[in-house]
Amino acid sequence: MLTSALTSVARISLCRSGIGGLIGQAPGVRAAYSRWALYRLNVGGVFNGCFGSWDEAMAAIPSDRLAGWDHDAAAAIFDAPLSRQPSVYASMFWLSQLLRPGDRIVDLGGGAAITQRLHTARAPLPRGVHWTVVETPAVARFGASLAEKGDLGGVTFVDSLDAAGACDVFFSAGAMQYMPDGLGTLGAVLAKRPRAVVLNKLPLAAAADYWTLQNFGPAVCPYRVWRRSDFIAAVTAQGYALKDAWDVVELACDIPFHPELYVPMFAGLAFVRTDP
């Protein structure tokens, strides 16, 4: 318990206060932290550095570390009991309100159909709803193997949005920030005019807009944080209205030596198309 308290104090000091910025100016401190943060294998969600682009962040990943989510080791993360994060219930509520019988839902970055499994464990989907998960090839293969064993029903796994086709409802939870152009990818989806869009676990900041690196255990990946107002404006500009927004209190972005970049909680958003 004492160790946990000390860890919390250290995190607050390094990531959320001016003390962290001052410590980061000491010679060798940032380099030493980077070595520690990028090579840890037994923890997930460790952030490091601030970058101006995907390419710049990728170049900072050590050559002897796996990068991105397209690896069997990354896919193995989903071979675990389903978590019960509070924000899941907000997204499930909006899916229950928006899905209609016979709808097609595309779930970008859905892992092993995590949200579909959490939803159906608590309430049935409308009759005839078909759920397509779009994932990296490695994760899609893992999900498909579960489906083949009969562990999943009514779910298809593909490794590209083109393969998924058009949809009535588009959903994504905690995946767009790992993509080279997540907002651009969303724009391409909106061009196909889904009726509704539900997004969860988005790292949205009040003022900042930047890239960082996240070590999620098996690998390291560039990680995008968007300015909240810009993100919402990009979606509404394509003919969608913001129906609801909620706080994702279980997730935060703490980057040592960068207190100005601290994101205290992530966000969830639900949009509906404005034209008939």
TrEMBL record:
The keyword Transferase applies. It comes from the Bacteria. GO terms for biological process: methylation. Keywords: Methyltransferase, Transferase. The keyword Transferase applies. GO terms for molecular function: methyltransferase activity. This is Putative methyltransferase (TIGR04325 family).
